[in-house]
Each structure stands twice: as structure tokens, then as C-alpha cells.
Design goal:
- Helices cover 73% and strands 0% of the residues.
- It has a domain at 91-239: MetI-like fold.
- It is mostly helical and 293 residues long.
- The chain has helices spanning 12-17, 20-31, 38-58, 73-83, 86-108, 116-130, 134-151, 160-185, 189-197, 202-232, 244-255, 258-287.
- It starts with 11 loop residues before the first helix and ends in a 6-residue tail after the last helix.
- The chain has twelve helices and no strands.
């Protein structure tokens, strides 16, 4: 996208550089001379400090909101370019969250066993995965996993899309497993014993008795984890995934307006998270997760 000339606008810093604020300071302190109060001086100092801070931000340049101005063809094109990355962000987040929910449940169940050897499977997985930062894991999955596949005689390439999904799903599954474990353990043990009394198997007890109640309780923390996945999907930009953050970075390179473009990026994530939060609140009311008492 070709760069454009920055429109000439009045810069506040010019007033500072020309001595306007300095002369104002001298006149104000002189007028406050003998009978001036300390409060008046402090107000003046605070005012000038704020003005000087603003002038420092704008003395060498002007605001560039024109790059995302929807009333201009170029600004509207930039906005559409940024917003079009939202589809990839949502798709990555939804698929990764779905895999994480299933994988987290499979990891949580061994942690509920009475046998220490089976519980050890849960503890090793959770502690190991939780200790790995997301970015190094992303690099390992995207660059390292194909090498392992080739060493095994398998030609399985991993593109940025699936690299991001695999990384997010595995990283989040450890946290989801702990949420499941806490939710299941919060159900009274007597309900499990009652289900066994009427002849239900372990899988039937989990499916019909324990999990329906546990899911109602863990819905809020699961929603928090989904929001976490949405925000962490920004890391996919470093491996070339064309999502929100990647598109913002590319636009900054061509327009040289990081403040304005990244501000719009933040607003995009804010709107996305607010929509998710509203949907979760509605789902909580439908499932009775927000009942008091």
C-alpha cells in the first residue's frame, strides 16, 4: 500500500519552541509575585507540566488519524484491510477453544482417579504445559514439529493456521483441565454414590449426573479462557498468520502511523471481547449459572 504525504496541521509544539509557554510562565509568576498564593503557583506548575508533556509528544510531528478516516477512500481501504483480519482471529480462537475443551476434559479425568499412577498423568501434563510460554511453544510447533514428522517418514506440513490452533489448544488445555477438575470436585460426593446405587456406570454418572452440574459452575472460567485464547491468537502474527495483529503490523510498515493503527487494533479486540462477554452472560442466564444462593 503506497505511503501518503502527511497533511500539514498546526502543531502544538511550535508554540513551545517559539517561547510562547515560557513567556506565559514568566508573566504568571510575576503577577503572582508578592501577594500570590502557593496554591496558585502549584496550579500553574501542574498546568505547564501537562502542556509541556503534550508538546513533547507533538513537537516533531502531527496526528495522523487520516490513515483510518472512513470519510476518505484511503482511510476506508485501511479500515477494511484491518477488519478483514477479524475472521481469521475468530476462526482460530473457536477451533482452538473447541479442541482445548475436549482435550482438557480428557486430561482432567485421570486427575480424579484414586490411583496415584493415573493421577500422575494429569499432574505431569498440567505442570509441564503450564510452564511453557506461549511464544516458544508456537515456534516449536511451527518450526520443530514438521522436522519430527519428517524424521518419522511422515510428510505433514504445518501452516500458520494450524500451527496457531495446535499451540493455542495445547497451551490452554492445561488450564481447562484444572477448571474441569475443580468443577467436578465441587459436586457433592453423595451424588456419585447415589448414582452408583441405582446402577449407573462411571461414564453414565459423569455424563448424566456430574458433568451437567459441573459445566454450569465452570462456565464463567471457561469463558475467561476463551477470551484468553482470543487475545493470545495475536501471537500467530509472528509466523505469518493473516489475523488482526499481522494486518496491523503490515499497515504500520506502509503508513508509518503506529499510534493510530494500533489504537484501532485495540478497539477491534475490545469490541470482540465485549461481544463474547455479552454472549457468555446470556448463556449463563439460560443455564442458571448466575443464580445466587
Amino acid at each position: 500500500m503506497p505511503g501518503r504525504d502527511i497533511p500539514s496541521k498546526w502543531s502544538f509544539g511550535n508554540g513551545v519552541q517559539n517561547g510562547g509557554l515560557l513567556s506565559l510562565f514568566h508573566r504568571s509568576t510575576a503577577s503572582a509575585g508578592g501577594d500570590g498564593t502557593l496554591t496558585r503557583r502549584w496550579r500553574l506548575v501542574i498546568c505547564l507540566t501537562g502542556l509541556l508533556a503534550l508538546s513533547g509528544c507533538t513537537s516533531s510531528t502531527t496526528w495522523g488519524w487520516y490513515v483510518i478516516d472512513p470519510t476518505t477512500p484511503a482511510g476506508w481501504t485501511n479500515i477494511k484491510f484491518l477488519v478483514n483480519g477479524m475472521g481469521a482471529t475468530i476462526l482460530i480462537s473457536v477451533i482452538a477453544a473447541a479442541i482445548s475443551i475436549v482435550l482438557g476434559l480428557l486430561v482432567a479425568l485421570p486427575g480424579l482417579s484414586d490411583r496415584w499412577g493415573i493421577r500422575l498423568i494429569n499432574r505431569v501434563y498440567v505442570e509441564f504445559i503450564r510452564s511453557i510460554p506461549l511464544l516458544p511453544m508456537l515456534f516449536w510447533v511451527f518450526y520443530g514439529l514438521p522436522i519430527i514428522f519428517r524424521s518419522m517418514g511422515l510428510n505433514i506440513p504445518i501452516d500458520p493456521f494450524w500451527g496457531a490452533i495446535i499451540t493455542l489448544a495445547i497451551s490452554d488445555s492445561a488450564f481447562t483441565a484444572e477448571i474441569y477438575r475443580a468443577g467436578i470436585q465441587s459436586i457433592a460426593r453423595g451424588q456419585t454414590e447415589a448414582a452408583q446405587t441405582v446402577g449407573l456406570s462411571y461414564s453414565q454418572t459423569m455424563r448424566y449426573v456430574i458433568l451437567p452440574q459441573a459445566i454450569r459452575r465452570i462456565l464463567p472460567p471457561l469463558a475467561n479462557q476463551f477470551i484468553y485464547i482470543v487475545k493470545m491468537s495475536a501471537f500467530a502474527s509472528v509466523i505469518g498468520m493473516q489475523e488482526l495483529t499481522r494486518r496491523a503490523n503490515e499497515l504500520v510498515v506502509t503508513e508509518y502511523r503506529p499510534l493510530e493503527i494500533y489504537t484501532l487494533l485495540i478497539l477491534e479486540y475490545l469490541v470482540l471481547v465485549l461481544i463474547i462477554s455479552a454472549g457468555v452472560r446470556w448463556l449463563e442466564r439460560r443455564m442458571g449459572s448466575d443464580e445466587r444462593g
